[in-house]
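Re-running the complex after MR caught last week's input typo. The corrected sequence lines follow. Everything else is unchanged.
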Amino acid sequence: FDDPPGLHEKTEFLLREWVNMYHSPAAGRDSTKAFSMFVGQMHQQGILKTDDLITRFFRLSTEMCVDLCYRALNEQTHSPTLIRAKCFHTLDAFVRLISLLVKHSGDSTNSVTKINLLNKVLGIVAGVLLQDHEVRNTEFQQLPYHRIFIMLFIELNAPEQVLDGINFQILTAFCNTFHILRPRKAPGFAYAWLELISHRVFIGRMLAITPQQRGWGMYAQLLIDLIKFLSPFLRNADLTKAAQLLYKGTLRVLLVLLHDFPEFLCDYHYLFCDVIPPNCIQMRNLILSAFPRNMRLPDPFTPNLKVDMLSDITHPPRIVTNFTNMIQPASFKKDLDSYLKSRAPVTFLSDLRSNLQVSNEPGTRYSIPLINALVLYVGTQAITYIHSKGQTPSMSTIAHSSHMDIFQNLAVDLDTEGRYLFLNAIANQLRYPNSHTHYFSCTLLYLFAEANTEAIQEQITRVLLERLIVNRPHPWGLLITFIELIKNPSFNFWNHEFVHCAPEIHKLFESVARSCT
Amino acid sequence: PGIDLTTLGLNLNSPENLYSTFQSPWADSPCRPQDIDFHVHSEYLTN
Amino acid sequence: PLGRQPLNKEHLYHLAMLDSSYHHLPHPSDSERLRHYLPRNPCPTAAYYPQLAPPGADTLDFFQRLSTETLFFIFYYMEGTKAQYLAAKALKKQSWRFHTKYMMWFQRHEEPKKITEEYEQGTYIYFDYEKWGQRKKEGFTFEYRFLE
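Corrected-run output:
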C-alpha cells in the first residue's frame, strides 16, 4: 500500500540527520552518543510507533541509499575510489544504524526481537535488490547491496557480548538471505554474492568458529546454490569470459576449503557431486581429493602397496546426506531392498534401467541423483553384508551377491550415456582410504575383469583416464585404482585393443602409466 | 586439462590457514596486514 | 558421451546478467572499512618492482625487524587493521608503552627517579604523532592507570 503522506520526506530528513551525526566527532565510540540522540528523534517523528512504519522506514532508507549510489556511479567524472568513498559515506552510516538498532532492540537478554528486526531488515534489502535487479536488468549495480550486507555482517560479528549470544541466529539470518539471493535468482549479483560467502569473516564464522560444525550445513547449501548456477555453463565446457571468471573464483574458494576445511568437503562431497555436471572433472576431483587432516595417506605410488592391509579401509567415511531418501519412488526402493535380500522380484533387474530413465532426450535421459543414490546405497549395503560374514571387501568377497548382480546388470544393460553416469557414480566414491573407497575400487576393477564386452572395459578406462589427465589434485582412491588396473596382470590391460587404437592414445596411456608407477 | 590450480595465487603449502587472509575470489594474491580489519584496542583509534 | 546441453532461455538471461555485472566487479576494498589514510589506490608501477608483499610480511617476526619509525607509521596510518595490531606488538617488544591519555607511545629514557604503585617519574622519549617525531620529556609522570 502507499506510504502515508509525508513519510518519504520524514525518512529522508532522518536519514540525512543520522549520516551527519554518524560522521560528526561527537558521535562517540561506535556512534553510541549519536545513536541515543537519534533514537529520540525517531520517536519524535513517530517512526518507531508501529512495525509497519519501521518496515517502511527501512525500505525507503534502503531505496534512498541505493538511488544515491546509482547517481554517484553514473557520474563518470569521478574515479572509482572517489565514487566508492561517496557511496560508503552514506551506506556505512546506514549499516551502523541498523546494527545499533538490532543490538539495542528489546531488552539485552531477549534475542527474539533482535533477530526479528535483523531478519526484517535483511528481507527488506533483499527485496529492494531483487526488484532493482528485475527493473534495471543489465543496468543493475551490485555495489550498494554488497556493501550493506558485508559491513552489516562484519558489524554484527564484532566481539561483543550481546552479539555473541545470538551469533548463530545472526549467521542463520544471513545464510537465509544469501540463499534467497542465490545466483539463479539474482545473476547480476553473483560476483558480489560469491565475494560475500567467501569473505574471511564469513568463512571464519561459518566453518571455523561456530561450535559443533553447526554452520557447515548452511554453508554447503550456499555452495550448492553456486554450483547449480554454474552447472549449465560448465556442462558445455565453453564458458564466456564472465562465466570463466566466476568459475575461477569458485575454484579459489574450493581450494581454500580444501586446504583449511577438508573435513567439510569430505562430509558434503556427496551433495556436491550430485550438482556438479558429470563432465566437470577438475572441480569434482578437487572435492574428492579432500581427506581428514588427521589421516596420513600412504603414497599411492608405493610399489606393492597393500591397500587391503590399511587399517583405515575398515572404517566408513562420514556422510551427512541421507542419500537413502533420494531413492524414489518408494515402490522402487521397496523392490530394491527386496531384491538385495532375496534376489526377488526377478523382474527387478530387467526393470532397473527404465526406473532410472526420466526422458528420451540424449544427454538427459537419466536421473543423476537417483543413479548416485542407488550406487551408494547398494554399495553400502554390500559392505554391511560382507562385514556381517566377518569378511572385508576384496575381489572375491564382493562377487556373486545380489549387490554385484545389480552393478553388473547396470554395466551391461545401460546404454553408453547411462553407463557413463553409472561408472561416474562409482568413481565418485574413490577418495581417501575408507571402506567405501576400497569397496568401490574393487567393484570397478571387478566390473572390468568380468566385462563380457570390450566396450565396457574401454568405458571404465575412459572414466578413470579423464579424471587423471586433468590438472591436479587427483583423489587417492582414483590413483590406486588406476595403478592396480594397469599393473595387475590379471586385468590384461595392455592387451586390449582400445589401448592401442591410435598412436597418440597409446602414448597417452604410457605417459599416464609412467606418471603413476 | 583444466586450470593449473597452483597458479591461482593461493599458497597451498602454507602451514597457516588460507581463509583468514583470503582477499577475494577475483584476486590472485592474499590480503596484506593493512587490508585486514582487526578489532584493536579502541584507544588505538586515534583518528 | 553426454553430448552438449543447449542453454535455455533462462540460462541465456543468466549469462546476459552475468556479463553485464562482469564490468563492475566488486573490489576487495568494498569488503573493508574505509581507510581514512592510505586507501587502496593501486597505481601501476614498473613491472620489475615486486608486485607481492615479501613472504612472511604478515608475521610478528617480520614486523619486529622494521624500524621504529616504520612501526609508528604503520600504527598511526593503518588504524583498525591487523598491521596496526602487529605494529603495536612489535613496539612493545622494543619496550615502548602506549599511554591512552595522550594516545602516544612512551619509552623509558633512563631509570625513573620515583616509582610508586600508581606511577613512575623520570625522563621518557615519546612519539609525537602530530608533529611526527620523537621527543624527550624530563620529569614526566608516567601513570600506570593510563597504560593500555
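None of the earlier attempt is carried over here. The helical segments of chain C are 9-21, 60-64, 68-77, 82-93. The two ends of chain C are 68 Å apart (CA to CA).
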